[in-house]
Input
Amino acid sequence: MAEIVNMPKLGFDMAEGTLVRWVIHEGDHVAKGEVLAEIETDKATVEVESTYEGVLLRQLVSQGTVVPINDPIAVIGQPGEEVNLDANVGSEGALEKSKEAEQAIEAAGTSNPARGPVYEIRVLPVLAEALHASPLARSMASEMGIDLRLVRGSGPGGRITKKDIESYLLKPSVPDPVKSPSQTPIAGDAPVKTFIRETRIVPIPKLRAAIGRRMADSTQQAPHFYVTHEYDVSALTDRRKEINLLLAVDDKLSVNDFIVRAVALTLLEFPNLNTSIDLKSNTLIYHGEINIGVAVAVENGLLTAVNRNTDQKTIYQISSELKNVVLRARDGKVRPEDIEGSTFTVSNLGMYDVDQFTAIINPPEAAILAIGSAKQVPVVVNGEIRIGNRMNATLSVDHRISDGAEGARFLQALANFIEEPLRLLISF
Amino acid sequence: MPRITMREAISQALWEEMERDPSVFILGEEVGVWGGSYAVTKGFYDHFGPERVKDTPIAEAAIIGAAIGAALTGLRPIAEIMTINFAFSAFDHIINEAAKFHYMFAGQMMVPMVIRTVSGGGRQLAATHSQTPDAIFAHFPGLKVVAPGTPEDAKGLLKSAIRCDDPVLFIESATLYQLRGEVSEGDNLIPIGKSKIQRPGKDVTIVTYSKMLDTSIKAADLLAQEGIEAEIVDLRTLRPLDMGPVLESFKKTNRAVVAEEGWRSYGVGAEVVARIYEEAFDYVDAPIQRVAQKEVPLPYNRTMEQLALPQIEDVLKAVREVL
Output
């Protein structure tokens, strides 16, 4: 009996995916675990693997089609099995195809198209298009910062070799060293070489484009307001030092681990800031889970590493879970659950010596917290100037969901945990 | 420096070492009264006497076994195996005894012996007497394998081999005995385990040894007429393999051909190419080519034999392939 493969849902806020490429062609045999197609979501390109064995009887959507989640994309069955579809389909559109799909489902005698998962997913690192270059050419290009896509290969099959890199370097007109007549060259001085690097035009990497789309949507649609608060982090710094003395090098806690837990516990008191807005139904979704996302820099952009039910975990658990996700993210081996499903995001640039900054809300969340560096600064205590440890945090909030007063109260409440970090160790 | 043949160079090395050290002696088939099947030991029997130049029965296992026993008692035997094809009969003694005793007895015993033998085809000796199984012997730790390609190297390396406290398989090429070259006079030792750049160049590296060194030099002469400067690295020793000059040359030229007379599969070329990919991957600008014997038992028919053996044209073709 024929089986239907649907567009997988790869995260709670995923509504549709683009079928980028069919890997198995119609009429070809497909084994269990074999990759059927590649699907691009807002956040990653994933491979959809078949959990059926059989022949791919029909591709129900063409490459490049945007398909809503759970809509059928393919039919797998026995060779020669009848799939009673109207063979003469002119339109390639997803809607037309969906109708076709309905017929296919009927034809296949499947009563429940949204049956259990028929795919396994694996996130692919963002790869450059296949490009042939010798190892030497690759190492030369990376050393000199040359984009190999701009170099013409003269080797077999268009392979780029050392010679091609050298002629590429010669191509741009390098002006003669400019000598000022007033400057008398000092004996033994080498002439000054002027080197002009070629202007390069490169396609926007997928991840960068996805970030761009989401951030543009967020800034255009969500009216942001910002509230900044200064925290005394002396106690946090001391407690962290004491705790880390007890931990192995790989297990040591970061300031961010404390902040992530502090935010999760504070959100318990501020459910309004742990929501998503759904414009289609004009509703607010109050999430039952507090899942803290942490912005992680990766090659070509950033991902949100998600920690689930953060309010119910110890700092140690949060720390080790986040470390694992960050490792996978930087290796390009991130899993969908690692980057999907956050309800509130923390973005920390503390390690870069940043006083404070404002972050763009990660849609469809209600708010994002931007953390600056913890610094020693002069502070006034009881009319005297002393050395204090301070850290700024700026909350960006969607004005459609909340107001300045609530944002300010959230930051105040957060101080209870950040400035008295022992609470983070006992509260549950 | 006098220009002498490979045969004379090897003969000189043996003569000088026997004069220098009374513990050195020769044993093998027809090495005495007959003067050696390749005439390398002509005159030795009359000069050194039957005690030090011993004719043996046609029994390779006995020759190697006796040599090992003599070496264990402190002598320095030079066992001649008429062709390397006959060494298979003595394989167990060579691999499991000569190459292992130092290790198995924790250094209490040394096996200071040389096995002189002849490898390669091209003399119409048919499939069982024309093989080039050098790589097989180079596979085993404990056995040094030397295979010179010039008279100078043959003399200097053989003297080092005779003075070496470990067993050394010294491989001569059947078709190189008449090759002439300048040879230093006197006690010029060449260390075992050192590759050498035999000809400088900048466009492509040809890695080779023994007979194929000569072939490669002839190919390089032709390439030079086209303006292609090939650098030739002679391995000289197959174990221990010295990749230093190979890598140094390859990092300059980024392109290489490895030429050997034996079969391609699991050969010396396979080892050298793998090492280049492992140790100089970022310098590779084109897939490395191997020149080797066709994968057939070597035919007796002269035309077919030459077709199966790697020729100058094969080296030229491989060089053009990588450039």
About this structure: The domain at 3-182 of chain B is CATH 3.40.50.970 (Rossmann fold). The two ends of chain B are 37 Å apart (CA to CA). The longest helix of chain B spans residues 6-20.
